[in-house]
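Model it.
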Amino acid sequence: MDHPIGKGIILGASVGLIAGWFGMLPARALVLGAVCGLLAGVTRLLIDRRKRKSGK
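Modeled.
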């Protein structure tokens, strides 16, 4: 998987499940982690597009 959004979702969900070990509800931790990963992936994608557009 080479797309930053997919990587972000997988990584965020994994970190969310680890947070579930420390008292958070596992389903809630998974969803919140996936949402944060999605936002991080979108941010990374937009930064890459901006760099490519400016020619750097």
